Every structure is written in C-alpha cells, then in structure tokens.
Amino acid sequence: MNNAIKEGKGPISEAWKLFKESNLGKTGLVILLFFALMAILSFIPPLIDPMYHPLKGVDPSISVSTPPSLRHWLGTDFMGRDILSQLLAGARVAFVVGISSALMSIILGTLLGMIAGYWGRIVDTLIMRAADIIMVLPTLLVILVLAALFKGLSIWSIVIIIAIFRWPGVSRVIRAQTLSLKNRPFVDAARAVGAGHMRILFRHIMPNVVPLAFLYMTFRVTSAIVIEAALAFLGFGDPTTVSWGMMLQWVWKTGHMFKAPYWLLPPGICISLITLSFYLIGRAMEQVLDPRLRRDWEG
Amino acid sequence: MELLKVQDLSIQYMTKEGAFLALDKVSISIQKGCSLGVVGESGCGKTTLGMGIMGLLPENASVCHGEILFEGRDILKFNQKEMRRYRWKDVSMIFQSAMNSLNPVKRVGDQIKEVILAHEPHMSKQELQDRVEALFRLVNLPVERLRDYPHQYSGGMRQRAVIAMALALNPKLVIADEATTALDVIIQDQILKETKILQRDFGLSILFISHDIAVVFDVSDDIAVMYAGQVVEIGRKHQILKNPAHPYTKALLSSYPKLGLEKERLRPIPGDPKKSLVYGNTCRFMDRCPEVDRQCKANPPQWIELEEGHKIFCKGTAHAIANS
Amino acid sequence: MQSPIVDIRELTKTYITKRKELLVALNKVSLKIHRGEIFGLVGESGSGKSTLGRLLLRLEEADKGLILFDGIDIGSLGNKALKGLRKEMQIIFQDPYQSLNPYHSVKEILLEPLEVHRLGSIKERLSIIEETMAMVGLMPPSMFINAYPHQLSGGQRQRVAIARAMVLHPKFLVADEPTSMLDASISAQIFDILLKFKDEFDLTILFITHNLAAAYYLCDRIGVLYRGHLVELGPSLELLTQPYHPYTMALLDAIPKFGECEIIPRFNTLQRAEAEGYENIGCVFFKRCRPAHRIRCSHEVPQLTEIKENHFVACFLAEELQQRIAATGTCSLGI
After folding, report:
1. pLDDT at A290
2. Final residue of a domain: which of B209, B242, B275?
3. What is the mean pLDDT of chain B?
C-alpha cells in the first residue's frame, strides 16, 4: 500500500489545520481572544479598589465625567465611575449574551431543523410554519414591546428571547442539509445495518450538520450582541448590568455625546470589533467547510 | 507530417504539498485522419495531457519541458491571439460531463451559435442557422430540438449536443476526454460508431482519452498506455492486441472481464494506481509489476522498439527477444 | 431441492415524478435467487435494477408483490423482526465516496453493525473487525483502523464498505454497481474479494450492474431488466452465447469488443430511433425493437416463459429469432 495514512486525522483536526492557515480566521481569533482576556480581567478592578466597580464604584473625589488620567485610564463617566472597568465588564456581558443566546438558538434551530428534515410531512410542516411566523416578526420591536410591558427585562430574559427569535434562520439551512443527507448512501447503509432513527439522527446526520450550525453561530453571536446593545441603548436593557450598549445610553442620555469622546468611542469601537472578529471567524470557517467537499486534482 | 506531435512534454502542478509532476516527458503523435487512444487509470496524467494540448491547463499547472507541435508550430509559444484561433477552430474538446459543458439556462441551439460567432463574428443569421442545423443532422439530433434547453435532453442527446459544439468550427483534431463514460452501454455504442463515421467522412483526427480500455480499443487506430505520468506502451491497435508487451498493459488487459467462451480468472494488479509527489528515475510500476526483477531496481527503464510503430518503456532487451 | 433464499413474486414499484407523472420502476418482476449463487441483474439506467436491490433490503417499500427471504415475507415484518433480518442481508453501494460517513473512522464504521445488534464484548468486536479487514485486504488492520474516509482511495473505501456489510456474516449481499466508479484494475480486486466471500462464507450475492461482461465473469445466472420488466433470465454462459431476447442481443451488440468497431452489429435488433405513434401498451421493448411484430407486440404483453431448461424469456418472437439467426446469422438486415 503506498498511501501513508496518519493516525486519527479526523475531519475536525483537518479543518482546524485549514483554519489556521487563513489570515482572516487568525485575525478574528486574535481579536476574540483579546476580548476574552478583557472579560476575564473584568473581575480585577473592583478587587483593587471598590471605587473601580463598574456600576457601584464611585470615585469620591470625582463627580463629573473626566478625561483619562492615571487613576482612571479611560476617564470617568458622569457619576465618577471608572470607564475602563465598565468596558471590561461590558466585554463579559457581550460574551455571555452573545455566546449564550447564539448557542441556545443554534441548538434549538439545529434540533428542530434536523427533525423537520428527517421526519418530513406533518412534523416538517409544523416546524417550518412556526419558523416562518417567527422569522416574519421584527425581533427588536417585539422585544421592545415586551420590555415596555414588563417594565424592563433581566439580562437572561433578553438572552432567551433573542434565542427564541433567532432559531428559524438556522433551522431552515439545517433542514435543507438534512434533506440532502437523508438520501446519501451512508445513511442508507446505516439503515440497512439496522440502525434506528435516533442513531441515524445523532450519529450520522448530526456530525455532518454541526459544522454548518457552527458557522451560523458566528453570525448569530454578532446579531445577539448588537440586539442587546441596541436594547440597552434605547433604555430597555437590564439596568443592573453594565454592557457597552448601556454605556452608550448613558453617554447619550447625559448629553456627553460630543463632549466626551473618551467615553463614547471605547464601547462603540468594542462593539464593532467584536462583531468583526466573529465575522472573520465565520468567513474563515466558510473557506474551511467548502473546499473540503471538493476532491483535489485527479488526472 | 503529423497533425499533432507532442514531444517530451512535462507538466507539473503546484499543490500545497509541493510540486507534482503530472506528465513526465510524454511523447505522442497523431496523423491526419487517424485516431489515437490514450488509456490509463486515475492519476496517470491522461486528462492533463488533453488539457495541455487544448491549452486549458489550470493556473497552478505549468509546462516545464517539451513542446506541443500542431501542424509543425509549437502551441506553447502562441500568443493570445494565435491561441484563441487555435482553440476550437483547430482543436476542440469533448468533456465527460456534458452538464459541465452546457449552460443550463440557455437553449442548446443558441449555445452552439454563440461558439461559432465567437470565432466567426461576421456570419449572417441565416448562415448561422443553417450551420447549426447541419451540425445537428451530423450528430443525429432532431433539428426540431434546437430550441430546447439541456435539461429537456436525455443523457445521450446531451452528449451529442456537446459533440456538435466541438465540431462547430470544423476542427482538425477533436480531443474526447471520457466522452462516453457516463452513458449507458447502448448509447455509448451508438455514439462511438457515429464518431467513427464522422472521422472517416471528414478526415477528422481524434485523441480519445479514457480509463475504459475496451472502449479505447474499439474506437482508436493507435493506442498509448499511460501509467503515473508516463507513456509505457505505444503502438497500433492490432499490434498491441496481438502482442501486449509492457507488464502494465498486460495486467490492465487481464483485469478486464471479457466475453468469451471460457471464463478466465481475472488477475488483478495488487495495490492502487501510483500517484505520488516524488518519483525517482526507476520504473514507476515496479512495486506492482508481476515481472519485476533485479535489473528493474538497478537501471531506469528505456524505450524498446519491438517492431515498426510498437514500442514499450521497460527494462532491457529480454522483452524484445522474447515477444517478437 | 432447497427453497430459494430470495423469492421475488410480481414485485411492483411506482413513483410519482415531480411533473406528477407515474413512473413504473418495477413492473411485476418475479425471480428466484438460489443459495450460494451469484445472481447478476443487468440493466441500463431506468431499468429499475437499483430499485430492486433497495426493495429487497426494505430501504423502500414495494407497492405490490411479495419478497420472501428464506421463506419469510419480509414485507409483513414488524420493526423488531426486520431489525433481526438485517443481520442476514446487507448491501454495498456504487459510490465509494458517498457510502461512508466522512466523520466516522474505519473503526467506528465497522463497529456500528456490532453495536446496533449488541453482539460481542468490546474485545470480541475488535477481533471480528480485524478479521474482516484482513479478508477484504485492508492489511495490516492497524494501519487502516483509525483512518478516515477522505484519507482512503476509492478502492480502499469500497473495501471498507464490503467489510461493513460482512461484519455481521450475512447470508445475502446486494452489490449495487460496486465497481462502476472504480478503475478496471481496482474493480478486478473487488471482484476477487466478492468471490472469496462467496467461497468462504457461502454467501449469496445479487450483483447489480450495467456491465454485461462483468456480470458474465462473476455470475452464475443473469437476469436482464428493461424499464422495469424482466425480459430474460438464464445461466450466464448460455444467456451470452445464445441470447433469446432482442434487448439482450442489443446489449451484446453494444459491448465494446476489443476489436474492430463494426458498423453493422451482429444481431441488429435495435431501432435507431424509437417508433412513433404507438401507445404504451404491449411489450415494453416494442418501440425500440427492430424485428417486432407491428400488431401483436404493440398490443400484448409477453410473459416470462421457460424456453429452455432454466432459461426464461419474455418475447413472442423468441423461437422465430433463433431460426433467423441459425439461417442468416443475424436477426435483421441493413442499418
């Protein structure tokens, strides 16, 4: 045999190898790691000095918004709270909100998409109609209405609601994939061997569908973060959490939009950068997923 | 003079893992009005050969040695204008998957007209219509179907349409790369027969590339057998049939089930067809060859002429004596 | 005599195409497969041969007709019994690139049948797998066991597919065009493997193919399908040296013969173009049949009748054509 076969080089490790070669992916990953670092570091400032607490910490000697100084590297907000620690806390919120709601919507969407595609008929129709209805509703508006009705929403309610609104997009794509996979010979082979529906769904179809779901997750994260930021900015966020959107709301509400660039710019830049990083990662993943399906040169 | 003469052609591909030599000093020639069949398994380079002659090599491929002489002129030295004229007017190609050649959203007749217009922009509408209708009749397609779309055609009809497109500009040489591989055996047979008639009636030269040795033997006058980027045996059809000399040719022929009164047990060649990045100077078939010996490991193979027009790329002179 | 391992009676399967037309994939096909034989099912695209294979494994349900496996009507089996049956019959497919899950290693692929049927301990399973890998020539097993499909060549993947099918030691294997996408020398290796299993495991094989020469090489008996109808059935040597049905003759005429490409075929039973103006009643091959009877063949459906011992044909003109061949060497004159 003249083919050298390396041990355990599954499609996943191959994909990772390809991903690492992509400049887009690497850039995205680096930015993401930077924010992850920020999120981790967010626990530190209050430990140094209670005045650095993003929400409750007030510098006793400051009661207005001040530009960057040695004590406050990014300056303070209108109440004398440290902007940097707010920024770090915002990173934490972005990750939590972004990733959890994306994860929830992906898991929900993937499961429902697989089930719809695999079982077809009534189940498929029901799930897809539900998806259609939800997709048609304007997410932000509905959340705003709900927020107004319930007089504000906690951060976890926001996460869950975003997840509920976002699963249809994924499920549609996963359903299409499932439909095509259902008829592949390897699925037929599994049926011929005697595999039951559960086994086929979770051991055969799911691994083939997860990469696509993962790809979609990167898009979902960005939209979740943006929605949360928008909510917070409009004043409907969770007042007990500090997010970048919340920071922007404070800047605006207190009339500092044009007076305090050191306060306005950091959260805005962070939102853009984190969205960019997920987008780049998503793009790199697309490149990884695609050519693997093609055979390379054969003569 | 030969219509086409490929001399010591070497083509390499740049891949992620390094340079891959797909063709290694390949030489073939086709006379006017004759057909040459190139047969080999996957990885042997036959498709690269066809693409090279058409000037359709992908970006990561480059010719690192040799020449391709069409009517005495080296096409590798053509400028863009000469290349455009050469491609499709002098030489045209029929690909395996007709679906790849036919645009699904355009009517078949229109596609052929487009091809003709690209090279002869001054044709009148009537002349164009006449030409396309004549082409359809040539390949036994009903003229009424000119205005249909590819998906309305059956597989055999699509392949015929692709052949019509290849013949649109009266080329001197047609390269057919696995042209009938995807077709049912009865349609394949019809198309091969029609191709032979066209060849005879129009003095067309054909380069017929396939992995299907039976088809190649049916339709070609001369045969070249390729393995791992090299030609290993070349000769007239009856010479090779009567006296297949190269061990790979012999092995290939004996791994093919044939209809006959006695069922011979097939002797498959062990292992997979070779395709690796690095080749040495020694014979590439060595590790699978049933006739390998010490001489093979020590000396590189050489060209041995068994009789006029029939030669093999193999070890020493023992062959020539034993088999002639 | 032992009862046949597979007994198909009047099997019918129809599909409704996207254009809401009725497509009859199999039309009352009946045949028996004997224990230990290799039965060749030959047909072109649209003949229904793959559909038959799938129906035998109950990957799809037949519309009408009966399939008896070892005397049991498989259509009447409930899920549990059907699963048990799966141990006895298996299938390998045409496309080696699509018949293995790209996310499973060879080990996982081969373990699956054993896991599904809960056979053997972990250690026993591993040794069964290695044994089977050795039988299909994936040697040494340690080299391949952790490989993933994309690392293997077409021939190697097909071997894995065969190993997967054989891990449960089934009695019956449906091989649906297993070599159509492989090179000739690799196909020959696969043939060898199938023959080896037949000899050592007393395996019965249904070999589905469009390649008459391959069927001749491997099979004891051959059945010829044309558009869902079984038109001829007989011992392979006899069928190929003395065909009775004009379609079989047309297939034989069409096979490339390593020689001169004759313009006028030997049997010459095929019309160049389909005859126009006839309805779809009568013999399924009528529209393409050169020697056909204008009236009888276009209105009546010929039944499969035994024309010689163990040799069946569905044609009204069978005797007449044999006489013509004996006299003139061909069935029709001219192109």
Report:
1. 67
2. B242
3. 86
